[in-house]
Amino acid sequence: MPHTNRKKKGTSAATKKPLITHTKRKEVLDEEGWVHVIDKPSKPRSITPPSEKDEAKELWAIAADFKIGNAYYVNRTEEELEIEYTRARKSWGQSEACRRVKILLEEKTEGEKEKIKNVVVLGLGSLQNARGEGRKASFTQLVALESILENFGRETKIPVYLQDPAFTSLDTEYLQKLEYTVLPDPEAFEHIDGNTLVYAIHCYADIYEKVSKRENAAVMICTDMEMFESSRIEKEESEVNKTLQVMVDDYEKIPFPQIRSDFSDTIIYWRRDEEIPAIEETTVTEEKSEPLPTEGDVPETKPVEELVSTEEAKPEEQKPEEQKPEEQKIEEQKIEESTAAAKVTKPVEEVSTETPEAQLLAEAKAAEVKDAVEEKMSELESRGGVKI
């Protein structure tokens, strides 16, 4: 029975020509003497490089003049770069974003002019980028950096180090003309320390990971680290996300004013210095320990009251002290007389504060009592009883 349902063609067997298949085979003799017939291995196909004509078509399609690696560039002269740079600086200076950045940094840099001692710029992009938007963004980010550094204005110019594998020789020459230093990868990372401003807009996560391995920079202007967390799901990439999040834990997060796509999702990470809380605590303690001026004002009134009260209290306190030794030396009868006289003088003294006549009367009574006491004392001395 046939093994297929396909219908046979209506040609006769006599008219049908035999089918000859040409194959490349090879006989191989094994160790036991058997001969094996195998197919010859086919030669690998050679990949022909694209011709100059194909490259020209590719460059024409994206309006590029030449290609380095996987990047496309346009031809420019130094004069043409200067024209684009001047145009970008004027446009940025008139933008609302520039005004807001200036106000923001004036508040943050007050009293912290020495916070930044060098700048490391990563991934700025080539000024000869074939993509018009990419080239414009690079110029805008460059002139924005200059306005940012003006807020850290100091007598000495802050050194700026730039690194990007996409830089061309013309990029390097032009940036050096602006008194910047262009470094090969990865030398710029070595210049990051606690007094560095890291300026890395829209870089890849591995660039920020390398930054995280250095000392915490003073300020970082870069892509929001939370953007990487939302876009990465693989295990290895999630570990990178954790590293980036830990890197910015000690920083204050300030949104950078948006302008088109040049600074989209960009954050100013401002490091919180530990010295600032300590200064605030000392100022508070000094304010609490300053009630000294109030004590200086009190002596004008308080001591006067104390003097008056002490003067009024002195006669009452001193009289018993003067009388106590006398009472101990005089006989019991004389003690009764002296105590009676003291009782008489007490109300007189109270009245003496009211009229001058009562004052004279009290003094006379006191003199009589004093004379009586002296007489008794002299009698005792003559008898040889008590000596004063």
Short description:
This protein has 2 domains: 78-274, Rossmann fold, CATH 3.40.50; 296-383, no CATH class. It has 13 helices and 11 strands. It has helices at residues 52-61, 78-93, 96-108, 132-150, 169-177, 205-212, 226-231, 235-247, 275-288, 292-297, 302-329, 332-352, 356-383, and strands at residues 25-29, 35-39, 66-68, 71-73, 118-122, 160-163, 181-182, 196-200, 219-223, 251-255, 266-271.
List the defining traits of the structure above.
388 residues, alpha/beta, Rossmann fold, 2 domains, 7-stranded mixed sheet, SRR1-like
List the helices and strands and how they pair.
Elements: E1 25-29, E2 35-39, H1 52-61, E3 66-68, E4 71-73, H2 78-93, H3 96-108, E5 118-122, H4 132-150, E6 160-163, H5 169-177, E7 181-182, E8 196-200, H6 205-212, E9 219-223, H7 226-231, H8 235-247, E10 251-255, E11 266-271, H9 275-288, H10 292-297, H11 302-329, H12 332-352, H13 356-383
Parallel strand pairs: 5-6, 5-8, 6-7, 8-9
Antiparallel strand pairs: 1-2, 3-4, 9-11, 10-11
